[in-house]
Every structure is written in C-alpha cells, then in structure tokens.
Amino acid sequence: VYNGDAAANITLTYSGLVGSETLSTASSSATFSDKNVATGKTVTVNSITLGDGTIGGLASNYSVTTGQTTTANITVKSITVEGITISNKAYDGNTSAVVSGVSGVTFVGKVAGDNLEVVNSGITAAFNNKNVGDTKPITLSGITLSGDDARNYVVAASLATANITPKEVTLSASKVYDGSTSLAGDVTVATGIGSETLTYTGATSNDAHVATNAKYISAITLVDGSGGGVATNYKLPELNNGNAPVTITVKTLTPTISNTGVTKVYDGTTDSLFTPTYSFAGLVAGDSNATLTHTGKVYNNAHVVGANIITVSGLSISGISGTNGSQSTDYILDSSSKTVSAAITTKTLTPTVTNTEVT
C-alpha cells in the first residue's frame, strides 16, 4: 500500500550454497522505481548483508552480489476527507444537501508532505434523514482528488455535518361569527411540502367580531398530520395579520314576527300602527335577543276585503343582547322585510235621519 516512499520490503532466497547449508539475511534494502501507485513495478535490490544459517552455513564463507530485480505492486492508500462545508437548509422534505466549499479540508491518512486537493465539483451530499436537527451527519460521495499525489489515494466514505432548520408554515383562518375567539376547525395550515399536512390545537383569534380590522391568529400549536407531516419539522410565522389573517363573516339571523291577531278599523289607508315583536333563529350561544328597526309597516290593501298581510320593511339590526358583547355588525338579516297576517275590520257607521217632512 502506498506510503509515500519507494522503499520495498523483500524476501530473499539463496542458491549456490554448499551441501545442505543455509544462510539468513541479516539486512537488505530494495526500492521501487518510484513511490507512486502502479502494478508490475520494478523493484531493485540495493544491498544485502548475509547472516549465519544452519547446518554449518556461515556468512563469512559466502559473498553475494546486488542489483537483482523483481516486480511488485503499489496499491492506493485509503483516506477520508474532513472539513467539506455543507450549507444549512430549511426543511424541504428530502435529504439532499448542497456543498458550499472545499477550502480548508483535511485528509485523514494522508502521507505528510504529499500534495492533495479536493475538486469542487461532482460531490454528492446527503443528510442521514430528512428531519430537522442540528449538526446532522452528511454522507459524501463522488469526491475527486487533485494535486501531485492524487493518483496514490482513494477516498473512503467521508462525513460532514450541517443543520436542517424548521420550515415556516402559512396560516389563515375563516369562520362565520360564533361569538367566540375559538378557531377550532377553522384554520388552514399550508406546509408547502408535497402531500405533508399538519393539524393543530389551541387556535384562537385576537378578536371575535366581524367589524374589527386586521384580525389574526393569536395562538396555535402545530400537531403531526398526514403524508409524513411532522410538527417538529415546521415552525409558526410571526403571528400577525400579514402572516396569519383571520376572516370572520356575518352570521345570518332569521327573525319571525310573533304578533297574532293584528287588526285595525278601516280608515281608508294601508297604514299600520301595530308594534312588531320578533322571535329569532340563528342567534349564537350566549346571545339572547336582537333589537330591530324598520322604516315601514303597510297593509297589502286598504280595504276590508283584500287586506290580509302587513309587510314590515327596511329592517335592520340595531342591537344584540347577551353575554358575548355581540355587535349588530356581527349579524345580517336573511331579509330586509317580513310579513305578518293581519286584517282590517269594518268601520261602524252611525246614520242620522235628515228627513223633516212627514206625510
């Protein structure tokens, strides 16, 4: 294996010994043709010092020449690379990582004095998983070396670290007025990552009323959803009207005129003098009554025959009673007019006899 120099380790055997005598090698040296990796490289014996052997073999009885050659291989040395810079990223649902720099790297296992650099292209980087975390391990592959001694090395699996930070979700909420600041079931949480969804708990609005401007989600907790959506991979935006707007629309209120037996004595007009009372459908829990105003109350006919309905028109809400502090603008009437059954009764006439001549 490459070690940065040309020295070779050799094993020697000897021929030409007398009888069964043997010799040992006290020391020897040999060198490759150069230090670099290759197969079938020439190895030259530079020096041999004989040592006594067995069966009477004495080194002093023999001499040996040098310069013999053989062939051998120098194989690449495995190293790891440390210090490749990886960009931190916001959670994006995958393990991909981006190499941002290779300056200042160190080579673990490099021979001192060798010249190596990392080519800043073709490197593939991947986090160990897709989830948020600090100092997350990153596996690097495709690292290419350059420099005078690059051919003598191979890069083993190398690691780096970087952070995956939570991705900010997009929030909005919409509901029909219900008298409360609760947004349970009313919030849309958009992750922006594939099919990943999140749910939530504890969502509230900063205000409950329709007419209040710039309403926003004032509190919410993200919860794991479906499609691989994990709450810890996401974060809330700053909660304000720009980032987490709330829309509250008016609640429809349906009044019914509850008066019965409405009548008047024929007076030649369609005017009505009755005071309408109402019952209501659509009031939210905590609201008990509504006050309505109107601009007109007229019969459908001025005559006894044909008059059977009074229409109360120009209806509007002027107030709401209850414990919610509801405002008139929190509701809308289903109609601006309502009718009630009514009648016009005959007017009693008192005749006076005007004849004064009797025959």
Describe the structure.
By secondary structure, the protein is mostly beta strands. The protein has four domains: 7-75, no CATH class; 78-165; 168-249, no CATH class; 251-345, no CATH class. Helices cover 0% and strands 45% of the residues. It is built from no helices and 32 strands. It has strands at residues 7-8, 23-32, 38-52, 69-74, 77-82, 85-86, 89-90, 96-97, 99-101, 106-108, 117-118, 124-127, 133-141, 145-146, 153-155, 158-165, 167-168, 170-176, 187-190, 198-205, 217-224, 234-235, 246-249, 251-257, 262-265, 278-281, 287-293, 296-299, 309-313, 316-322, 331-333, 338-345. Strands 7-16-13-12-8 form a five-stranded mixed beta sheet, with no helix packed on it. A four-stranded antiparallel beta sheet has the order 1-2-3-4, with no helix packed on it. Strands 25-32-29-28 form a four-stranded mixed beta sheet, with no helix packed on it.
